[in-house]
Design brief:
Elements (H helix, E strand, L loop, with lengths): L2 H8 L5 H10 L4 H8 L3 H4 L5 E3 L6 E5 L5 E2 L1 H14 L19 E4 L5 E6 L4 H11 L31 H11 L14 E3 L14 E10 L2 E10 L11 E2 L9 H15 L10 H8 L1 H11 L9 E2 L10 E4 L6 E5 L5 E3 H14 L6 E3 L5 E6 L4 H5 L2 H5 L6 H4 L1 E3 L14 H14 L11 E4 L13 E11 L4 E11 L11 E8 L3 H15 L6 H7 L2 H9 L9 E2 L3
Parallel strand pairs: 6-7, 16-17, 17-18
Antiparallel strand pairs: 1-2, 2-5, 3-14, 4-5, 4-13, 7-8, 7-10, 8-9, 11-12, 12-15, 14-15, 18-19, 18-21, 19-20
Bound molecules: iron/sulfur cluster (SF4).
The site of iron/sulfur cluster has 12 residues, from loops.
Length: about 550
């Protein structure tokens, strides 16, 4: 059994939630918490949604939003809590802690969560009390248990949807949250559920992905789900395997429970490097894994029906029609997912002011957000709000597709800075590169290390942080850099990107991209997307194009591997 597993056995991880109240009451320091509960407490605190930040004494806290859905009231509380508690201390720069965002900001994540930084343990109970009033939770935001359940951010709006799966998402989320039997799994357990053909909830890269399907049963044509299992990114990325089963919406909770049961019983608890569920599916094979799930499932699972998924078709940025009710929704672009808490609260108030009583805020897996249920006559006023001008629904293509992880500002694993770099690069690239008019977004994803919080493997352009030793005539020393990947996508033509070049110094990336886009614009076939072109051109030539830039890519030595 590995050390983390031992910490999870010493005390049930959910019990840490009660202990947080004591730590807060007594205003314990990190040293005092560790003296009282042992160093395993840092692991268990993840079940409270709290992750020790690299600056000792402070936490990142993660708020779940099943399916990315928030009421305006919930979103307002989240924004206000960021403004009140995510405040950097003077010794770390106070309000000037971050030169782009100051402090008191929040991050929208690729799992439709909200992360806040600089949280002190003594502020957590008060935040939880404010959360309780509007039905929010941070419980199981992190840790080896069922995480936030993903879904389509436009669920229920009728866009390309076979049926609205949000009630199923909420039922699954409710079943697993604070469920002691399934709260301690071999490793984190990620689920996504959608009734939409476009699968923005990314079924292929989750442990369990439920996607729409249709089947005739007893003369009735029923909507339900097909299941993909064992997908994931990070080291050892894998696309989920499709099972031959049809899951009725009312059986989705039991199906997910049976998968969790199989993972709990059969998953590896020794080697954390290979204990994600995708390794179990790979090792057993999809058929045997399906058998294991069927053996543990208390409902009948008919064989599969007709798959209705078309695949990923793009994002939700912009002003769109809600096909079901004639209203509009607006997708705002938040580069790298970061915005001020006060700005998020403003967006929530705008949803209340300009939307109908069904208005909501939806978080998307590309770190953007939507405001829904806006009557057409109110759209201009919504777009005139100060937050709407900063997070424009009509951004340049690089801004629109830019995703960034937390990076070395707060994350213990990070090798490089990511959030500021993602925002600056996206804006600069929009200025410097003329992307063909028919391309709305270039998906550029930056992870600060080889973990995949920014999902670089599914991007047109993906980066993972490295340190680089420069040894050229002009420059020597260690600088920040990145592995440089090209050609990833999800959907019908899903493929992980190729890591085309290793350890590229950060300063060389923009010139290399300019060179690539110049050749792409010259050579592309009609309608060809950037990732499609990079797949058509072999890597040797792509490297040659990058190195032929005005500021050639200086080769370095990777420190990260
Ligand atoms: Fe941290 Fe790496 Fe995840 Fe970025 S990708 S947040 S650096 S663990």
């Amino acid at each position: 059994m590995n050390t983390v597993e031992e910490h999870k056995q010493e005390k049930h991880p959910l019990d840490v939630v009660e202990d947080v109240y004591d730590y807060a009451d007594e205003q314990l320091t990190f040293e005092e918490i560790e003296a009282r509960a042992g160093d395993g407490e840092w692991e268990r605190l993840k079940w409270a949604g709290m992750y020790a930040q690299k600056q000792e004494g402070y936490f990142m806290i993660r708020t779940k939003a099943p399916g990315g859905y928030l009421t305006p009231e919930q979103a307002e509380v989240i924004g206000e809590c960021a403004a009140d508690y995510a405040v950097a201390p003077e010794e770390y720069g106070g309000e000037e802690q971050n030169e782009l965002w100051g402090d008191a900001y929040l991050d929208i994540t690729t799992r439709q969560d909200i992360q806040k930084h600089w949280i002190r343990v003594e502020d957590v109970p008060e935040m939880w009390e404010r959360y309780d009033e509007v039905g929010l939770t941070t419980i199981q935001g992190c840790g080896d248990s069922a995480r936030n359940v993903l879904g389509c951010p436009a669920a229920g709006l009728g866009d390309h949807e076979c049926f609205n799966a949000q009630p199923v998402i909420e039922a699954v989320s409710d079943f697993f949250t604070e469920n002691r039997e399934y709260a301690n799994l071999p490793r984190k357990f990620k689920m996504t559920i959608t009734g939409c053909r476009h699968d923005c909830g990314q079924s292929q890269i989750n442990d369990v992905g439920l996607v729409p399907a249709k089947k005739e049963i007893d003369g009735q044509h029923l909507y339900g789900f097909h299941a993909r299992v064992g997908g994931g990114l990070s080291d050892g990325p894998r696309m989920g395997s499709e099972l031959d089963a049809f899951i009725r919406p009312e059986d989705a909770v039991e199906f997910c429970r049976a998968v969790a049961q199989a993972f709990k019983e059969l998953g590896d608890r020794n080697n954390r490097g290979v204990c994600r569920m995708r390794y179990l599916v790979e090792q057993m094979g999809a058929e045997k894994f399906e058998e294991a799930v069927r053996d543990r499932c208390t409902v009948d699972l008919p064989d599969g029906g007709r798959n209705l998924t078309v695949g990923y078709q793009g994002d939700h940025v912009g002003v769109h029609d809600q096909k079901r009710d004639g209203l509009k929704y607006v997708g705002f672009n938040v580069i790298a997912g970061r915005m001020g808490g006060d700005e998020f609260a403003q967006a929530a108030r705008a949803a209340k002011k300009y939307g109908t009583e069904d208005a909501s805020i939806r978080l998307a897996t590309d770190q953007n957000f939507l405001i829904t249920h806006i009557p057409e006559e109110n759209v201009d006023d919504l777009l005139a709000e100060p937050f709407a001008r900063e997070y424009s629904p009509d951004p340049g293509p690089f801004s629109r597709g830019a995703v960034g992880c937390t990076g070395n500002e707060f994350c213990n694993y990070a090798i490089i800075e990511t959030k500021k770099r993602t925002k600056r690069w996206a804006r600069e690239l929009d200025e410097r590169i003329d992307v063909p008019d028919d391309i709305e977004a270039i998906r550029m994803h930056m992870s600060g290390c080889s973990a995949s919080c920014a999902q670089p493997q599914i991007a047109d352009i993906g980066f993972r942080g490295e340190t680089v030793t420069l040894d050229t005539d002009d420059e020597s020393g260690i600088v920040e850099g990145m592995d440089f990947g090209l050609g990833g996508s999800l959907g019908a033509d899903n493929e992980f990107l190729d890591w085309v070049e290793n350890a590229v110094p950060a300063d060389a990336v923009i010139p290399a991209l300019e060179q690539l886009f110049e050749v792409y614009s010259d050579e592309r076939e009609a309608g060809e997307k950037f990732y499609e072109w990079t797949r058509r051109v072999d890597n040797e030539r792509l490297r040659g194009i990058m190195q032929g830039a005005d500021a050639p890519v200086a080769r370095g030595v990777a420190h990260g591997d």
